[in-house]
Amino acid sequence: MNGLFISFEGPDGAGKSSMLQQLVPVLEAHSDHSVVLTREPGGSPIAEQIRHVILDSNNTDMAASTEALLYAAARAQHLHDVIRPALRQGKIVLSDRYVDSSIAYQGAGRELGTDAVAAINRFATNGTMPQLTVYVDVPPAVGIARIQHYRAQPEDRLEEAGAAFHDRVRAAYQALAHQEQQRIVTVDGTQPIQTVADQAWAIIQQRFPAFFNI
After folding, report:
1. Residue 190: DSSP 8-state
2. pLDDT tens across 151-164, in order?
3. pLDDT by residue (tens digit) across 29-41?
4. Domain ranges within the chain, ordered by starting residue
5. Staple 34 to which of 21, 91, 157, 174, CB 3.0 to 4.6 Å?
6. What is the CATH class of 4-211?
7. Smallest Cα–Cα separation from 8: which of 137, 178, 148, 150?
8. Which part of the chain is the Thymidylate kinase-like domain (predicted)?
9. Residue 145 CB: number of other CB atoms within 10 A?
10. Distance between CA atoms of residues 4 and 203, nearest Å
11. Residue list for the binding site for ATP
């Protein structure tokens, strides 16, 4: 594939989505390649329908294994509909969450086992992985405080999980970053959003200079 695939990861409240709003215009201004910003779960019509089922706070009885499989199903559809076509066309794909989220949230947070969730996702993705993952790291207490500040109620079932859940999620992310240092680069998410975006831009242009006019 001729394009560039970058994922962005982090615990709830890390500020990934806000940072991406700052980052996308910079990439567009410095590249002749089209930039596609997408998200998971979701990103395409069918995957968005699955997202609604996964995150609906009314689905309190959803089994952890069901949750993991639904995330993988949404990801497979997202790849089919959005990511692979864009990469074939030489575009720069930025995905707000990808496989690492499932390993951290379902594998560690829901305690299904990181190896088991990774195996489910190898099938779902058929090996399609980002060339770079920017992991925006924040302590769980900071992320949850941000969520509570900006929203009166948690947005979804995962944000409603307890402190121990979010501690396991962050630990799993940090372990992945240590294990896959060639792919995953950590940025301190406690910094101002613009600083995080600037650091992400510096990492991207250094890694992939052929895609950008510097």
Report:
1. T
2. 655 555 555 667 89
3. 999 999 999 999 9
4. 4-211
5. 91
6. alpha beta
7. 137
8. 8-199
9. 13
10. 14
11. 10-17
